[in-house]
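Severity: low
Component: inverse-folding endpoint
Summary: output formatting inconsistent between runs
Steps to reproduce: submit the following structure tokens with default settings.
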């Protein structure tokens, strides 16, 4: 019986990286998550290829299979939610969503490819709107929180960015570094209520996306080149993995990676 060591990381939920809301446990390994986090995970993250009616969830931390989530434990009694997927609810969650979720959960968020972030700030490119931003933010939020209807959140975040951009005083002489800092703070404040512990990572990612001046497909391609994962629309044979990881962020497993499970 291996006792895991992640208690050193406090009691944050490994999925949202924030204090746990409605403590829940997987029935086999008793790893702890927010109730919503683990249910959403169970619903969207497993592969649909080989088992549409999958009745278990693989723990993102230890990969053990549990068939239920235990919650509302008060010392005597508890509630139990059986895992059972309804494949029709997860149509919106495409391969690209899942790929992006993996990027957030297994990669540290350092700059990738040769995207030059400071050049973007120095060149004042940030003054122009980015035509792909809405669609990009929408997909990222869907992937991160595993919800389909994210329009209100996306509106809010993109609106805040637009008004930040438009409200820059004429002839503003702030340094690029200061502009960058302001921008990141603005986005973080807007996103935090929804993304909680994943906010900073999202902000870095958003900055990288706008600084890249690429469209969504091209941006995804940069990632695939960097991480070597495949998503169906993109063919790439590079399979180098990034070594730089933030030790404070648990790396979660995705069941899709283990093809041997298919049987
Ligand atoms: Zn959580
Ligand atoms: Zn576990």
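Observed output (run 2 of 3):
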């Amino acid at each position: 019986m291996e006792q895991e060591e992640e208690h050193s990381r406090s009691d944050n939920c490994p999925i949202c990286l924030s204090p746990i809301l409605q403590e829940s446990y997987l029935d086999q390994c008793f790893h702890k998550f927010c109730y919503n986090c683990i249910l959403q995970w169970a619903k969207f993250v497993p592969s649909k290829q080989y088992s549409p009616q999958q009745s278990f969830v693989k723990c993102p931390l230890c990969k053990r299979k549990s068939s239920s989530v235990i919650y509302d434990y008060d010392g005597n009694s508890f509630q139990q939610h059986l895992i059972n997927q309804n494949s029709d609810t997860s149509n919106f969650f495409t391969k690209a969503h899942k790929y992006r979720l993996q990027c957030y959960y297994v990669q540290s968020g350092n700059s990738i490819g040769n995207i030059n972030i400071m050049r973007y700030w120095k060149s004042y490119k940030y003054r122009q709107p980015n035509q792909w931003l809405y669609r990009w933010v929408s997909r990222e939020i869907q992937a991160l929180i595993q919800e389909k209807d994210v329009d209100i959140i996306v509106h809010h975040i993109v609106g805040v960015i637009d008004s930040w951009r438009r409200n820059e005083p004429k002839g503003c002489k702030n340094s690029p570094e200061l502009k960058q800092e302001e921008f990141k703070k603005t986005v973080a404040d807007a996103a935090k209520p929804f993304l909680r512990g994943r906010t900073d990572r999202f902000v870095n990612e958003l900055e990288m996306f706008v600084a890249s001046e690429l469209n969504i497909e091209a941006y995804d391609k940069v990632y695939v080149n960097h991480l070597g994962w495949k998503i169906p629309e993109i063919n790439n044979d590079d399979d180098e993995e990034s070594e730089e990881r933030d030790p404070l962020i648990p790396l979660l497993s995705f069941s899709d990676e283990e093809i041997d499970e298919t049987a």
